[in-house]
Amino acid sequence: MSNFIVLVKQVPDVTQITDNAFNPETGTLVRSRLASVINELDTQALAVAEKMNKLSGGAGRIVALTMGPPMAEEVLRYGLSRCVDTAVLLTSRALGGADTIATANPLACAIRKIAETFFAGSSDYYIVSGMQSVDGDTAQVPAQIAEQLGIGCIAYMTDVDFRDNRFEFSRIISGGSQIVRAKEAPTVLTVAKYEYPLFATFARTRNAKATKVIQWSDEDVKAENIGVKGSKTRVIRVFPPGKTGRKCQRVTDADELAGLLVESFTKADDQQLEAGQGENNYIMPAKRKNPFDRTFEGTEKECKDFEILSDTLNSAGITDIDNIDEQTKEKILASAGEHFHSKALEDMLAGVKLIKPSYTGQVWVIAEHDDAIVHPATFELIGKARQLAESLEVKVGVAVIGSSVEKFGKDLIAAGADTVYAIENKVLEEFDPATYCKALAGTIEKYWPQIALFAATPRGRVLAPMVSARLGCGLTADCTSLDIRDSSRRGQIAILFQTRPALGGNVMATICTKDSRCQMATARPGVMKRLPADPARRGDIIREKANVKKSDRTIDIIKTEHSIGSVNLDAEIIVSGGKGMQNRDNYEKQLAILTEAIGQKLNVSVERGASRAGVEQGFIDRIHQVGQTGTAVSPKLYIAMGISGAIQHMIGIANSNTIIAVNSDPNAPIFKQCDYYIVGTIEEVVPQLALALKENKQETTK
Ligand SMILES: Cc1cc2nc3c(=O)[nH]c(=O)nc-3n(C[C@H](O)[C@H](O)[C@H](O)COP(=O)(O)OP(=O)(O)OC[C@H]3O[C@@H](n4cnc5c(N)ncnc54)[C@H](O)[C@@H]3O)c2cc1C
Fold this sequence. Notes:
Helix content is 30%, strand content 24%. By secondary structure, the chain is an alpha/beta fold. Helix 9 packs across helix 10. It is globular and about 80 Å long. 52% of the residues are buried. The protein binds flavin-adenine dinucleotide (FAD).
């Protein structure tokens, strides 16, 4: 008989954001003005636990666990009114302000206590949680809990079955899906999608009201790394997301759209879309002409404060920062006015003395591959790593893990690596987060790079948190921008600033690592630009024998479904269809009409793509799937038909030059993230657009 611990979290309702929820001065979201709800994926985790309990005989106990303020009790009552038998609230002031590592640690300790207290020490239990929460959006906590407990993690789960007395889990992997079993319980399961909601029953709701929620503090569970002190990351600033670089222009007729389509293609240039990428403007303090120059601080205010300090020091003719008398300090404070006071001045004076970078070592990329080819996101990260490494005046290393991976060395060096670490062992033939984590962490500990970048793919998003937890290093998820900057007042020079969207994309946050030997981040595929391959580049390949054994494996892979066939998603034009194409015949028919008309007009081959929902509906094979778990594409022209604009799709097309969308819903989210759009059904728009392209008189030579 298996028991279950479901992790639930109370989150702000980011779907119901009102105007007054924004601070008019900063443009950022005021969390306290948002209603609180249970995290949607955690409701699905409850439903999965209930299904697993039924499948295995229904005699198990379901315990819901949450960490938060006393009001978080509400989400436990939600669980009690559905399927939960026992509810535990982990709450104390000391737990506040935690990052993912300082959240995972007390939760892991609470899980141990739950197993001892309610399961009589039995290890036959499963920890089920939503893959991520809408506020943090990191997907790191469950994997970090698994690592803290020394158990396996099956991430991105979509369904569960029970065969031969064992659970079988379906899950999403890059470019396909998989059915796996856990080698043993306990294990952590994270739910990516499970669309069979549980409803509250009358009897359970009455019971939920009467049930006492058990409260534990950090001391009750003997947590070691908690709150701000136990955190390995620090938020530098929170700011409103920049306006999309897309035009978002509504077009009302097919002739105009045909004209814009032709013009966008013929005038396409390869501009880089990531703000700031390629500027490579960071200069080490020792190389700056003015020794007091601090133009690379994290916030505008800090830069301004240091500018005032530097101007006053220079105009007073001061060159030796150690010999500043009180009179000069008074002078600086007088020039600073309201900008800063004496304590800040002391910190700044200490800051301008610093010239040594806070970290040493290479900039590493952790490569991802499917045994035959390297994932495109790896090449994008190498492009970024080169830029960071040049700023830091260090080398780029690429760690590639598997049973026989030395063969990738040449391509990785051509892409920008200086050293390739081929971490090999037969046991690493299949991706198992536990064995990969052990192998990679062992190699990181040997070389200690200063930065380790992972792709934010289903693999990277489970491996990175496990490695970070094992090595006690901070990790930032899903970054869209990575830069080298200083935080001089805090004594940190040449550190990695990691910027990412948070709260469902409603705010951006810049984060840095603290109290760690390596700065770790995952970065979204399709956001960084890969460099053109240079086959003449030279580099070293170092073979590392990974110290892993068969008994370290935590999962059995029953079946893997990968895309089959061939497709050219490097094409200059891609036309993709989503669920809005209704059925396979309609997808076939409409795409044939449009791709043929475009191909004839522009004399170029046009490739077909699809959203994940389109693939799941069976419109086309999975190899055509575009997006986070499909392929990230960067065509000159991307045409999205009947696609809503989910984040997982949009991050796969972010590097397209021009995006055109056709959708019947005037409020389709994709309209806020594309260049040109037309509101209408595919069935009306496609024939009109094909005709307009035929009749279009524009010159098409570039
Ligand atoms: C872990 C994970 C990974 C994922 N990876 C990916 C990924 O790689 N790629 C991806 O695409 N998704 C991915 N998804 C799924 C993603 O969240 C969305 O569910 C998916 O992109 C939706 O596809 P869609 O836009 O085709 O369908 P829907 O969201 O259902 O949208 C269909 C759209 O069609 C419109 N429509 C309906 N009828 C018509 C008509 N007749 N004419 C015109 N418009 C019409 C509707 O207005 C609607 O906007 C992932 C999800 C998870 C959880």
